[in-house]
Design goal:
Largest sheet: 7 strands, mixed
Structural class: mainly beta
Helix content: under 10%
Order of helices and strands: EEEEEEEEEEE
Strand content: over 45%
Oligomer: single chain
Shape: globular
Number of helices: 0
Length: 120
């Protein structure tokens, strides 16, 4: 059974930090690029960051580039999102996503999300 389980969300004050984790099971994690997305109330889901399957390359949405860091540990089948200097506008449900394209087939999995609330 494929699972992506996020954790690490919570309530944090503006300027604070959180580290999200997403643990994978049921598929070959090391063969998948991983992404974090987020969705704020009343807004569309937006892409946050991505990391290649081996972890050699990362990319970020412009508004998060200087504050967030994505990383992965393939031995632990886990992807992380370190979030620093958090702002109220970072409040959202954060989702991890696994994606792999093999020929004409695409494989994609989503986690259930973890809530991040930035508020004083």
């Amino acid at each position: 059974q494929v699972q992506l389980v996020e954790s690490g969300g919570g309530l944090v004050q503006p300027g604070g930090s959180l580290r999200l984790s997403c643990v994978a099971s049921g598929f070959a994690f090391s063969g998948y690029a991983m992404r974090w997305y987020r969705q704020a109330p009343g807004k569309e889901r937006e892409w946050v960051a991505a990391i290649t399957s081996a972890g050699g390359s990362t990319s970020y949405a412009d508004s998060m580039k200087a504050r967030f860091t994505i990383s992965r540990d393939n031995a632990k089948k886990t992807v992380y999102l370190q979030m620093n200097s958090l702002k109220s506008e970072d409040t959202a449900v954060y989702y991890c996503n696994a994606r792999r394209v093999s020929g004409l087939r695409e494989y994609e999995y989503w986690g259930q999300g973890t809530q991040v609330t930035v508020s004083s």
